[in-house]
Amino acid sequence: MDTLTDRLRSNLDGQPMLATLGVEIVELARGRVVLDLPVRPAVTQQNGFVHAGAISTLADAAAGAAALSLMPEGKDVLSVEFKLNLLSPGVGERLRATGTVVRSGRTVTVVGAEVRSITGGVPGKEVALLQGTMIAVEHAP
């Protein structure tokens, strides 16, 4: 890969689940990745709120990509564990997950992600907070 941005974009674009959900890349930087999930009926639950599974996937992907951004070439990351606090219903035009690295190591990286609702381009309520651990693995060809 030529750049960090290319590497992160390739990783995220290579995840069919994110394509299924319609996740969009907003920002890619060292230690910080921002992803959006457009809110539409296909990602909601029975009450019309964004499904917790979609929210956790969005947060996990943003946090994982942030961890990957600090890994050397040839490494990838996998989630070891994460805790997700759902703080308010997922509503709005889109949900935005900002993934950040809390502490990066050669093997284990601690990450966080905040998910907020967005309507009219304006950030709204916090929807969820994730804290997790990622492990470095050899990149599969």
Automatic annotation (TrEMBL):
Family matches, as SUPFAM superfamilies: Thioesterase/thiol ester dehydrase-isomerase
Keyword Cell membrane: no
InterPro entries, per the entry: ACOT13, HotDog_dom_sf, PAAI_dom, Thioestr_dom
The Thioesterase domain, residue ranges: 47-121
CDD domains noted in UniProt: PaaI_thioesterase
Alphabetic keyword roster: Hydrolase
Keyword Hydrolase attached: yes
Family assignment from sequence similarity: Belongs to the thioesterase PaaI family.
Matching PANTHER family: ACYL-COENZYME A THIOESTERASE 13, THIOESTERASE SUPERFAMILY MEMBER-RELATED
Protein name as it appears in the record: PaaI family thioesterase
